[in-house]
Design goal:
- The structure is a homodimer of 453-residue chains.
- The first copy, chain A, has 453 residues and is α/β, with parallel strands linked by helices.
- Helix content of chain A is 25%, strand content 28%.
- Chain A contains eleven helices and 25 strands.
- In chain A, the strands form seven sheets. In chain A, strands 3-2-1-7-18 form a five-stranded parallel sheet. In chain A, strands 9-16-10-11-12 form a five-stranded parallel sheet. In chain A, strands 21-22-25-24-23 form a five-stranded antiparallel sheet, with helices on both faces.
- In chain A, a hairpin with a 2-residue loop joins strand 13 and strand 14.
- In chain A, helix 1 packs parallel to helix 8.
- Chain A is globular.
- The interface between A and B is large, with 78 and 78 residues.
């Protein structure tokens, strides 16, 4: 009997196992995971800390029973220490001791780990990243039991802004430190400034362009030192300085590692070694506009890639269409979404890019509750090609599903003007005869080309 | 100087004039409209009656000044009685008397009129269609001044359900009569049943499969007779039995009229007569899946077609991409959206179609406020092609913008499985790693084909 082993029990790993089972009812499938949390949503951790999610158990995408009832064996607290390609076996450490686990096919779904700044106290309950379910549970307990008065959030990316929001909801005074000149560095500075204003309006002290040099224990407090700040004392420091691929095991096993530090795979999620696949936050992802690999660790992509890896590992046929880096984040009353290339990314990639920004109401202003969306479109001024977009607006105003329309345009290589042809829905409480995405596309087309429809 | 005359001052007409001005700054442009309401949103009339929109003046898409300041001449209360193609002149009746207006290019944007059941009292303030701004103003005044106790809404299409909602908000007891077996006959019966349940839950008495034979004046009341009901007495009867193209003038002028009764145009919105264009509710619309003309009177389509007609009439170049009949309607707390072909339409057009229905939460259920969406996908079981979809769910749960994603898939001839490749946005408060549209696509693919991604 053929035996598929999946290393990792988060999004990519579980999708791979489930997809493999659908392709082959008889395949022996085993998932090895380092911790005890099979198939939990780490994207939900900020809402656990904020109290919006009342218990970590709720964060399961599926129950273990649902997975195991499909004949998928799950081994918790199993850490793979070595991959022997010749004998096709894994060396594993577990509470039961060391063991060797044979495989015919292998899926690496080892994810990513926090990219920590240099000087952070080790094993200090008041300072940790927010990456694993254990991190989330510990931080929730710390906030509930210690009731911290103030906190530093180190990092201004999407986890950073979500954590700032979460801690404010728990009554904590938050100072955010970000190295980039504006928050949400995957967004343009203009969009970042809108999110920064929302953070400030909700009481977050935002320090941009501030690299944190050290977090030190100072009695009952932590002391933060950054580019311009000396010894800001806080009760809690959340580390949200991004992630890097967990690819050391893959490297040791002889898998090819790319310049980003992530595992190199083709669009079928095959590594350079026959029968070995990889998916999710540990791999380089094919970017559909750049037409080359990029490091884009996102849950949506991990799910897609895991499914493709599992399908192919079980003898099916599937191919990754490519990512365009679509993301959305909720921060207090705002949502900010982006897809495709920012103007800076587009220029760096050699596209003659220009941005047009518009403000348009989410639905007909005569119907109550209309809210303005700020939309930026990046396009190629020579070819007219759509390259990317950002939307910032009220989180109840359709930001996420509107960015999705732009995502499809980016992924399929549309001209910006093709957005005007889309036969979109309309009713005054929910839209306009020309949806805001089309108002923005129209503005881009008109400002870059004089006469067109 | 070349002279473009546009007949009609609603969506298609005004878009045509504006687009023509963008192409040619020197063109002489004139809009003739029968009433006094230039560029008003007739889609907003139910919200005027409901009181959600406090005054009809708010329903203007744009001010007249904004249009006239572009050198577009607007003539109100001008009714065209004849089109003389030989002398290229229009005969016009207006408060100033009869006149002849010359043209070089002409755009018919004469819209549609209510399709009235046979026996309705004429000029009775208690019974009228809801189609023009005058209809809306009169009905709002009637409801405000007479405070009707009960009403019949005749017609169960989207205007009918919106009017039932509007009248309930004004404290009116509503009975709805629909000829079709379920409400919203452009939707499947299953989706219609969900909307019907919402209407009933909000106190509307819904009579389906009921053709209204007559509305008669009966003292201070109106008396309704339908297939099974004799003499239901109400204070008010709203006629919402659909529309038919206003194409008599075009027919007299010698323009080709299709089997639907609407003006025949090509995808550049040209009629069979050189220099004469038509757009909006008076024309047959190219259906992108059926690849033939259909009658699809929708505001979104009217805007697109008007812009194309105006662009081409002024010497520019634009082409209509085709409609897939995308619609959304809000009814009390529900929104119902549809795009593409229903299963019945698909089978009638010769597609070997099958429907799969799923229920999926609009966002991760662990985050508060998650609401179920009921999604139906229709696809071609031989080719795997996506043909259409419907979504019914809470109106705050992203129904409209999710139907838009399906609309793009329908318009671009995607396979249903291509929806799974879409790089959509995700954050727990606003979605899932596989968006509900993808969950539905996955269910369709799995139930029609055993092994795929």
């Amino acid at each position: 009997m053929t035996r598929l082993v999946v290393i990792g029990g988060s999004d990519a790993g579980v999708e791979a196992a489930l997809a493999a089972r659908r392709v082959d009812a008889h395949l022996e499938i085993e998932i090895l995971l380092e911790d005890r949390y099979l198939n939990y949503s780490i994207c939900g951790l900020p809402y656990l800390v904020s109290g919006e999610v009342p218990g970590w158990q709720r964060l399961a995408h599926r129950s273990s029973d649902e997975i195991e009832s499909l004949g998928i064996q799950v081994r918790r607290e199993h850490r793979v220490t070595d991959v022997d390609l010749d004998s096709r076996a894994l060396e594993v450490d577990s509470p039961d001791g060391r063991a060797s686990i044979p495989f015919d096919r292998l899926v690496f779904a080892t994810g990513a780990g926090p990219s920590l700044p240099a000087a952070i106290p080790k094993d200090d309950p008041a300072t940790r990243p927010i990456h694993t379910i254990d991190d989330g549970i510990a931080m929730r307990r710390y906030v509930e039991s210690r009731r911290p008065h103030d906190a530093a959030v180190i990092g201004s990316g999407y986890i950073g802004v979500e954590m700032a929001d979460a801690l404010v909801r728990q009554g904590v005074d938050v100072t955010m430190f970000g190295r980039a000149p504006t928050v949400l560095p995957t967004f343009s500075a203009d969009s970042g400034a809108l999110v920064e204003a929302e953070l400030r309006e909700n009481g977050v002290a935002v320090m941009t362009g501030e690299a944190v040099g050290a977090v030190r224990r100072n009695g009952t407090r932590l002391s933060i030192t950054s580019s311009t700040v000396r010894n800001l004392d806080v009760d809690l420091a959340v580390i949200a300085t991004g992630v890097r691929p967990t690819a050391e095991l893959a490297r040791q096993a002889g898998l090819e590692i790319g310049s980003t530090g992530a595992v190199v795979v083709d669009r079928e999620m095959r590594t350079n070694v026959s029968g070995i696949f990889a998916a999710g936050d540990c791999v380089e992802t094919y970017h559909a506009i750049l037409e080359r690999p990029a490091y884009l660790p996102l849950g949506t992509t991990a799910h897609k890639q895991g499914r493709i890896a599992g399908t192919n590992a079980a003898g099916g046929a599937a191919r990754f269409a490519g990512s365009v880096g679509t993301q959305v984040v909720k921060v207090f009353d705002l949502a900010a979404g982006r897809t495709g290339l920012s103007e800076a990314e587009a220029l760096a990639a050699g596209f003659p890019a220009a941005t047009v920004r518009v403000v348009a109401p989410d639905h007909k202003p005569y119907y109550p509750g209309s809210r303005d969306l700020e939309i930026a479109i990046v396009g190629d001024i020579e070819t007219g090609r759509f390259l990317g977009a950002e939307i910032v607006g009220d989180w109840r105003a359709g930001v996420a599903k509107r960015i999705d329309l732009f995502a499809v345009a980016a992924q399929h290589g549309w001209a910006t003007r093709e957005l005007l042809d889309a036969d979109l829905s309309y009713t005054p409480p929910l839209g306009s005869p020309w949806d805001p995405v089309q108002v923005a596309a129209d503005a881009w087309v008109r400002s870059t080309r004089p006469v067109t429809v």
